[in-house]
Backbone:
């Protein structure tokens, strides 16, 4: 099979020929059709993602969509020919999706939503799982909540907006420029973070009470702003990028709470992997109900042009999630 291999951090991925892996106990062999490209993929390649614990040489690629070729011992629920998607590799010692085949832990997979194609499905796993873990698992989003999503047009953000709305919340999201129209298109009230300050939009949209849930997908100063935007006592801040040093005083003075999301943890530790499959099954139902859709960059990148796909992600000059078509 063809695979894109990283031999040294900071270097380019190299197209190589490898043996097709076999499905071991608890695994499924997937014929990979598409591989989603995330900012994390580019950081791993550059050697700026120690938390991903990637051992070289490595086949990168976190997200995949494809077709089951072989089912290993002990696997039930999947059969050859099933269309699947998942967040399955590219970190630790797990082979990534930038290859024509991948043997993956069956617990990390779910059936691909019927109403979307392989490229669209490959755009979802990492961002959808992160949004679900933040909004549903940590914050318990429900009807009546006022939810603020920072970075509402981004990869995680646009899914978080749709997920919160699907669960009955009233959703607001920050952005600027053209992203405000994207946010509006997904059904949230856009907030231009370049105009006014936190106190101003909290006053305008919550009467000064604060948001029930603030989901930070940006990190840094945006997480600090989240602590100042949350509702007193019952509010909850969630961040997918809470890796810096922050003062908790604004949060503490509100009696509010905070949770972090580290989506890679089940992949790196082996614990809790079945929940990733459960989340993707639930997300697939939302997709097929017309309640959630991925925002996809229109350009198609074949496997040999992964460098261009990574460059597009790093530049920020893209109209949605970048996806590599593994089967050219």
Residues:
């Amino acid at each position: 099979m063809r695979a894109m291999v990283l031999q040294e951090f900071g270097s380019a991925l190299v197209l190589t020929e490898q043996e097709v892996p076999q499905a071991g106990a608890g695994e499924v062999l997937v014929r990979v059709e598409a591989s989603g490209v995330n900012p994390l993929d580019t950081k791993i390649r550059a050697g700026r993602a120690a938390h991903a614990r990637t051992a070289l040489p490595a086949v990168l690629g976190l997200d995949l969509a494809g077709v089951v070729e072989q089912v290993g011992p002990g696997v039930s629920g999947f059969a050859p020919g099933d269309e699947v998607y998942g967040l399955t590799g590219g970190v630790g010692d797990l082979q990534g999706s930038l290859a024509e085949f991948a043997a993956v832990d069956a617990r990390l997979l779910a059936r691909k939503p019927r109403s979307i194609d392989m490229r669209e499905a490959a755009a979802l796993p990492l961002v959808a799982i992160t949004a679900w873990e933040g909004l549903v698992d940590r914050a318990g989003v429900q009807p009546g909540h006022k939810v603020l999503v920072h970075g509402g047009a981004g990869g995680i953000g646009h899914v978080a907006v749709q997920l919160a709305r699907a669960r009955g919340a009233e959703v607001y999201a920050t952005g600027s420029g053209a992203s405000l129209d994207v946010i509006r298109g997904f059904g949230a009230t856009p907030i231009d973070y370049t105009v006014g300050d936190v106190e101003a939009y909290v006053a305008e949209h919550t009467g000064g009470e604060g948001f029930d849930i603030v989901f930070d997908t940006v990190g840094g100063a945006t997480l600090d702003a989240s602590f100042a935007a949350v509702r007193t006592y019952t509010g909850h801040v969630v961040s997918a990028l809470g890796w810096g040093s922050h003062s908790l005083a604004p949060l503490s003075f509100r009696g509010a709470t905070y949770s972090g999301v580290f989506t890679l943890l089940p992949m790196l530790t082996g614990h809790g992997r079945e929940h990733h499959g459960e989340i993707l099954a639930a997300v697939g139902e939302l997709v097929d109900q017309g309640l959630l859709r991925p925002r996809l960059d229109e350009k198609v990148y074949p496997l040999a042009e992964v460098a261009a796909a990574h460059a597009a992600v790093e530049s920020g000059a893209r109209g949605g999630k970048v996806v590599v078509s593994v089967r050219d």
Q: What stands out?
A: The chain has a mean pLDDT of 96. The CA atoms of residues 126 and 261 lie 12 Å apart. The longest strand covers residues 27-37. The chain is about 30% helix and 25% strand.
